[in-house]
Amino acid sequence: MINNDFFRFTPFLKAINLSYNYDLADLPLGISRLVSLQHLDLSSTKIKELPEELKALTNLRCLNLGNMYDLRRVPRRLISSFAKLRIFRLSYSSLELRPVGDNVLSDGGEYLVEELLCLNYLNTLSIHLKGSCALGKFLKSQKLHSCTQFLRLEGLEESLAVLSLTGMKHLYKLTIYSSGLDELKIDYCSGEIEKIRESHCFHSLGKVIIYDCIKLRDMACVCSKPQAY
């Protein structure tokens, strides 16, 4: 357990790595005193929510919330308050499809996408989205496309058009977890394969994970054409 008073004596601390502290369920509020903090890694902890007080960390450049399976709440306007943020990772969390009060993890991550669009210096992104609406809002932003390295999609309905992901030139890992998805769509007749090849997309893609897609009947469109990657 970290005592809040500890942070009184470290006002110029610039980096904190609390990752893999599996007993850490609450973030000490005293961390908000570290106004010089630039790097905060909370990945693989049991923290359930981020406190409003973190808005004081105006110099934050890297925030890692990866593999925080217990994370239930991130206050609205918290992420967007980190105006200098360059790296943001949220690979797994407890997203809700329905609106749940003052929380960017509700509405499948739509609110989160809105806040990320406010970050002018963001250049590295890992994100988890749930539902077609959140994905649709994300796909409208070329800025977010260009800096995404990890994308986890959940709760999609019916089909996903591969061409809609072609702007993600730095995407390394794509995870699709969706029992409602029945089609990964590539339209050969309209020349989508050629468009994908000419756009030089997916050159960074190293891993694709598709699971619990029990309605997905055919992936031949992906695996039978080598040039489709």
Automatic annotation (TrEMBL):
It comes from the Eukaryota. Keywords: Leucine-rich repeat, Repeat. InterPro entries: Leu-rich_rpt, Leu-rich_rpt_4, LRR_dom_sf. It holds the Pfam family LRR_4. Gene3D superfamilies: Ribonuclease Inhibitor (3.80.10.10). The keyword Translocase does not apply. This is Uncharacterized protein. It comes from Dipteronia dyeriana. The lineage of its organism: Eukaryota, Viridiplantae, Streptophyta, Embryophyta, Tracheophyta.
